[in-house]
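Cross-check.
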Amino acid sequence: METTTAGQQDHPGRASATPTAHSEHHTEPGASPTARRRIITEEPALSIKDLIKEFKPSRAFRTKYPERLTASGLYRAVNKVNLRVFPGEVVVLLGANGAGKTTTLACAQGLLKPTRGTVRLLGENPLQADPELRAKVGIMLQDGGLPNAMHPIPLLEHISTMYTDPYPVEELAERLGIDAFNGTTIRRLSGGQKQRVSLAAALIGRPDVLFLDEPSAGLDPQSRNVVFDIIREQRELGTAIVLTTHLIDDAQKLADYVYIIENGTTVQEGTVSELIASDGTNRLQYSLNAPTPTREQLLPAHLRAGVELIEKVPYTPARDGAPSVPGEYELVGALRPEHLAAFTAALAEHYLMPISLTMEPKTLEDVFLDISGRDIR
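Predicted model, tokenized:
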């Protein structure tokens, strides 16, 4: 069995290793119905160890970001990334723009040669992939990769001839609604329609490993649900799925395991439940037809440590015939029953009745923003 390396140690929330590629997944207590505990099999479908990828930067980049260069003057886009993807699981890579996700996946797919480190795709070096290995891998790209002059179904029929046991084109086209716009060339399709064609092209060879780049981008709610169902079905068939997305809600619904990449490094990993529960943070959201009392007025001194009061929307009183706008606020921290008791007592003391009051656990988006920051990149 493979020895775990730095950044890949087993977590308390993971199940123990099981030497089969078809091990059963179990739902974690308190998790959503689709959340499952990770099962570590004998061999991962994708293994990346201490991956480093450096590029020669442009003159403009060297001038603007000298602090981001190595001693040899190169730009290190990926700096010792470690990750594993096992058969029958959805692994999501999260990271802000420029974090290193695309470069990592290009190395995993054999499109870029690593500067240092090891990449194994279905046990082989993807840079040296033969046709047999490539036939076992499906890749869905968000942009490009489809010939603009072709119509969708003829394109899929052409792709299907490259495989010995392709998925029936008619069934795939009907399932994804591609037959409804087959009369339009790829060039004239909407972004969401192109995404559906790209997904079909990635699936048609019945891959063992599936790379999905923003699979739900531009989709309407109906198409999004179909795509989610297909991803879950592929997982149940034992496909190893690597998914990148900026839609954190999608990641939280689909992921069995998450890697967060920042500045080219794997900075945090775990199941969604593990990441959300990592520091015990939750949030008390409320709205008032008045300014909120201060944190000092809401909580006694011994309950204030580690608790932040955030004004999301300031209260605006009625003025010149315009109605008032309720204020929206949050108390964020490791809240306990005594925090809730003190909070409600303080509102009663100020004779304030909240318009709404909800308490929620930390979300995956909160975890991501805590790591990558809230500034636009």
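Residues 1-37 have pLDDT under 50 and may be disordered. The first strand starts at residue 46 and ends at 55. Passed to J.P. for a second look.
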